[in-house]
Amino acid sequence: MIKEIYFKEECEGIYNGISKLEKAVSSTLGPNGKTVIITDEYGKPYVTKDGVSVARKIYFKDPVENIGASLVKEVCELQVKQAGDGPQPLYSKVLTPNGFVKISDLKINDDICGTNKSIQKVIGIYPKGQLKVYKLKFSNGQTVECSENHIWNVNTSYGVNKNLTTKELLDKGIKHFNKHGECRYNFYTPNTIVDFSKKEQILDPFLVGLLLGDGSLCKTGSIELSLALDQKYILDKIILPEGIKISYTEDLIKHYLRVKFSRIKNSGPTMHDYVEQIGLLNCKSNNKFIPDNYKYSDYDSRIKLLDGLAETDGHINKRGLLEYSTISNKLFNDVRELLSSLGKQCFSYLKERKLNSSYSNTSIYKISELQGYKNGIKLIDIIETNHFEEMMCIKVSNPDSLYITNDYIITHNTTTAIVLANAFIQNLKEFDSNDINKAFDEIIPKVIKQLKLNSKELKHEDIKYVASISANNDLQIGDIIQQAYNFSNIVKVEESNNLEDTLEMVDGMQLDVSYMSKRFTNTPKEHCELDNPNVLLLDGKLEDLMSFKTILEKVSSNDESLLIITEYISEKELRKLESNVLSGNIKLCVIKTPGFGPIRKDFIRDLSDFTGADIINVQPGKQYSPLCLGRLKSCTITKNNSLLIKHDEINVNEIVNNLKTLSENKELTDYDIEVINKRIENLTAKASIIKVGGGSEIEMKERKDRYDDAVLAVACALEEGIVSGGGTALRYVFHVLTSELIKEKNKEKDFHFKVLECLLYPYQTIVCNGSKPKLEHFLFNENIIDPLKVTRCALENAVSIAKTILSTDTVVLNERTWS
Fold first, then answer.
1. Distances (CA, A) of 543 to 141, 201, 213, 337, 576
2. pTM tops 0.85, yes or no
3. Average pLDDT, stretch 4-9?
4. Residue at 227 is within a domain
């Protein structure tokens, strides 16, 4: 492999790339910032003022310039999400909506499969040169090859989720021995359900599953299906293609139904034609397979396909799990892949039949779906090989930074937002990196301290200004968010089918509790969102789900959702619910009852009044009816809290009035009155729902992103306060600290001046864009304000990228990158 080496004096291209990226991104800054036109993957243009979107689309033909731009994007995106690269060999496979492809064949904007049924975009591709290959082996027989720097999303044996490199996994040790000398494994990769784009299907997936199991697909003779006599009910579930009918005869001696498919009329496609179109005509039992249009189709189609397979060559055992048999090696592997894509784990093996068996000498493949696997798939070995391979890594748009690699193993990658660091890099590139790091360590803590001294608490009337500035100076967004906060401090943003943005005021109770398992989440932001959920409210512990079998079956069969509120749930029962959620059998979430001691009892009563649910004190062996369930309009559970929106049919006025009367009892202690008032506050709490519209889906999603950013900015401002906006906060700090430097007898003060001069960059950029904020520090009266937290994080991450790039002395490019 040919290599090209660039030393520091030849690395000007890196700084050029950074400068060009900065110019494009900074043009969007400030109230007079310019819009940027970007084309999507189909060449269709769209307009944005979002610096993150602009930066993500920038790539240069010059490889050295591209390295500079990529480094800025890659490291500075830490402001939103911190993650790392995951180099893999070029022949490694990544799952896409149409099946697995080699990672080397991926291009920018290609669709790939993310976690939780999401479809994601490739937003970055980075060749990494030749790296040593490591092999990771898992308990289900899967193997993945990667580099030592590859980042894995893993669960520990204690259920804690972490991101660790291959090297870190090796250093920590993948297994240990307990006091009994038994081997225990330390890490697991989480299970996930993936989804694919919906495919055009000639035959119904359920029928295809039946034909793959017990179908005769020969060119000669009729297309037939053999079923047991007690499987006559299956005939009612079959959806036939146009112009096809079925007839059957009963063989009472052999105990089976012989089902034939034939044309209704003498013209039109035959069943042979349909089977040929999907590629299965003339397949024998030993070479059947699942066509790609069915194996990589949407979730519901794959569930129907699996149902058909289970009715023929498989069965559901007493534990509700699939057991499947086939003599086709290809179908065996396809069924295993189908189960993996549905989030199901299985044990599989080849069963050799005894010689001269009365049935057949042919070996048979067995698949058994596994129950449990609460933490995912065990990592059982890491092998460091002695050979090297060309490797690359990708960036994906998935907010949880995860995508699917070989054999449905989840892996991690970087996805982040941009922070401008060009000022530090361009102004300090001529200096020694050791001096730069020392100056940063001395100056930046003083800058942050001064920012905090100059910050103010966010006043309620200033919310719209923080929101507007965060939303690219969109005053309409700022006004609506201000209205939302006028009504409630609980604000939620949703998509809408309308053209206009609307604000809805609802009764909403926010609890300081989260989901009991991350596996209940169903959005890219790791939230669990349920519409019109039933509510099961328990006073005590949940240790046996059988008492609620009727309730769970009702919720599942009606395609409804369920919120379970309980003080405690056993590990065993929690894993059962996780498994059913991951497999798509039911939509639910479990949260902990808020409060403690006597207060918990009060909270339970309030939740009962708020939801209409009966309070259940679980009695072993008793079967509970769905009549005990309550109802919510919706609920959103995040890693920090739970937002419950009251159903319109529930009325709490009488309960609230009773509590108000009770609070007037003069014999109560101050503490008792405080508890009652808190209960009244919970029952009468309000929430604001902003529903974002648009003339098209692209417009609506772009506006929703800005609303999300604005609500987050307000949350940051409420958390840490606000500082003067328009770059003037950092400009003011520059004047304060340089004044102090002048008074000091510091040998390095000239160099410190250089560092501090970079703080002027945001203000100068906004001025260049055509807007000139007043020079005074205190611009609060001008309604130009920024959240302190945003300014602080921007500064810290700018320093981070500057340290990285300014300490770079050599660039080595392989032929693939520079030729």
1. 33, 44, 39, 33, 11
2. no
3. 62
4. yes
